[in-house]
Write a structure and sequence with these properties.
Elements lengths: L2 E7 L2 E9 L3 E8 L2 E10 L4 E7 L2 E9 L5 E7 L2 E9 L5 E7 L2 E9 L5 E7 L2 E11 L2 E8 L2 E10 L2 E8 L2 E9 L10 H4 L15 E5 L5 H4 L10 E5 L1
Antiparallel strand pairs: 1-2, 2-3, 3-4, 4-5, 5-6, 6-7, 7-8, 8-9, 9-10, 10-11, 11-12, 12-13, 13-14, 14-15, 15-16, 17-18
């Protein structure tokens, strides 16, 4: 059943209004039967979007809350996460930086709940380019990455000792001690430490975006259509 309350002009929804269906409730601004301006969508499963729309799609700044506690706040382009934004997973992981087509892409900072951190470049969700991975304040790798693995040249800083290292697809193939703190012995387990899990746990199959797409039938005509709910499509990108 469709319930619609709000302002109308020339037989179309214009201005502020509310539309409620068995699947979703929208409260916000309309222009010519399309969501346009600021609004809030609340889905029956508990997901919620608060932010800007343009021509019926999420566009501009917004916040999306998932029922498991995860949330994204930042830019949307045509109902896709693109631009600058922050994502926090329900298990405490977080990322702030560049996005493209619902994926981490560009530069950003990824933080794990236990304190590990990666600051650097991403390409389609994978570490690629230059980046720094902090195991702790006294231990980090700064260098090149490819396909989510250390690849190329970099520097390992370990408790004051600095190593120049070379990796090939995550495997340490060369290391040279560049400087050493006199009060410390040479760090003995750098070979083992090279393969500490650096990549984030597999990302949850989150619904990065969700959108209601109305077909070309004017809302004023849909209001009397008993099968209106069949005209609503929910697009979910994982």
């Amino acid at each position: 059943m469709l319930i619609q309350i709000g302002q109308w002009k020339d037989g179309m929804a214009n201005g502020n209004g509310v539309i409620s269906t068995p699947h979703v409730k929208y409260v916000g601004s309309w222009k010519d039967d399309l969501q346009d301006g600021y609004g809030e969508e609340t889905f029956v499963d508990g997901d919620n979007y608060q932010g800007h729309f343009a021509n019926g799609v999420k566009h501009g700044q917004g916040k999306f809350f998932w029922k498991d506690g995860s949330c994204y706040e930042g830019e949307f382009v045509n109902s896709v996460i693109s631009g600058k934004g922050s994502f926090r997973w329900s298990d405490g992981r977080s990322y702030y930086g560049d996005w493209e087509n619902n994926k981490m892409h560009g530069t950003g900072t990824y933080i794990w709940p236990e304190g590990k951190k990666y600051v650097g470049e991403y390409r389609k969700e994978k570490k690629e380019g230059h980046g720094t991975y902090f195991f702790s304040e006294d231990k980090y790798y700064d260098g090149q990455w490819l396909d989510n693995k250390q690849h190329g040249f970099g520097i390992y800083f370990i408790f004051g000792n600095i190593y120049k290292v070379q990796f090939r697809f995550g495997k340490l193939i060369n290391k040279v001690l560049q400087s050493k703190r006199e009060e410390k012995e040479n760090f003995p387990i750098i070979e083992d430490d090279a393969n500490v899990i650096l990549t984030p746990p597999p990302q949850q199959n989150e619904q990065i975006n969700r959108n209601i797409n109305f077909d070309s039938t004017p809302l004023s005509e849909m209001a009397s259509d008993a099968n209106f709910t069949n005209l609503i499509m929910e697009t979910i990108h994982n």
